[in-house]
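Researcher: I'd like a structural prediction for the single chain below. Treat it as a standalone chain; there are no partners to consider.
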Amino acid sequence: MHLHILGICGTFMGGLALIARAAGHRVTGCDANVYPPMSTQLAAQGIELVEGWGADQITLKPDVFVIGNVVTRGNPLMEEILARGFPYLSGPQWLRENVLLGKWVIAVAGTHGKTTTASILAWLLESAGLKPGFLIGGVPGNFGVSARSSSQGQGFFVVEADEYDTAFFDKRSKFLHYPARTTILNNLEFDHADIFPDLAAIETQFHHFVRTLPSNGLIVANGAAEAIGRVLSRGCYTPVERFGVADGWTSAGHIGDGFEVCWKRETLGRVRWSQSGRHNEANALAAIAAARHCGVPPAQAIAGLARFEGVKRRLEMRGVANGITVYDDFAHHPTAIEATLEGLRERVGASRIVSILEPRSNTMKTGMLKDRLAGSLAASDLVYCYSAGLTWDAGAVLAPLGARVVVHGDFEQLLASVAGAARPGDHIVIMSNGGFNGIHEKLLALLAAPAVSSKQ
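Model: Treating it as a single chain, here is the predicted structure.
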């Protein structure tokens, strides 16, 4: 079968393309915004990529067009597909019908931590010899790809279960297409202001999802998240294990490189790993609980965490120039920003942290969460905000941080300002959910210049 995927460079659709190609299908696709790591993954797999949405792509004559949620009415190619009556479906529907049915599906849902938790879980199953398939919204270091097929028959499949809508013609959350047996509900906050009016609307989607889960399955739920508690109270037919509460899965004995794992106040072992931050401890607890439901003993999972290599774009070190370390992070919600910076502070101690933020997500652009932004950046010694395209005054919003804040609407001025202020020993973390104009490589090149290395 020939699939032509619209929006193929999104993390979900790109992963779907890799799975379809591995299954023997011919895969082509198109997109408007192309940047690593997805573009490089597609190229490595020999998947043909067409730039833009030209209606002439109709001449490729695929068996089906697979539509990503980036596609809207008015898109030239989509309009041609509709006008000609050609077959199309959404990415989540294709995944359900062609990959997930018949598998033991482990779905990882929540506002934050989905990618890291799904990556940890896939690795725990892999390290136990279970060879899971997975589709994750990032690239786990242990695998080097964001998606792969599982073994035949009743194989395990880990899927990052996103609450964002499915497609312009299917406004349900993506995760409603996933027939999960094991489910993680990591946390729940307001996000995606472009499609949800309030937190209650998101809770309703999670409620619909919970009502589809089987009675012989398991929900691993964040016991400290009030919104998840409200969701489960609306009706749940599946056993629940909670983490983050004393009568469930908890962490203790925190040290620089690890923590103890406890189940109902009984210590099961000590994790020693390279990750930092209490948020990652919570992600690990949820993954250990889900892995146990899949047959992996906690002791084996705890041992496997020592070899977990993290995820690209999750506090990923991109390089060091003249003693200045540059990181890339996907954080774009105040809660995630705060967690990222707390984890980095734990790692670097008293060294200076320089934060560069691009408020790029639809929610951040609206300014609905802007009042929480200054507080989320408090662990930074310097803060640079790229304000291009914002409808709110970033300088005024970040004013509580005082002289630590620099706001630029011009990208080149932003780069020059950061390079001019940076000094050896600094840790610069760049936070954006997009490519940010290739800022990482450009900044590293500037930092390597003699003018920077001469600063004391």
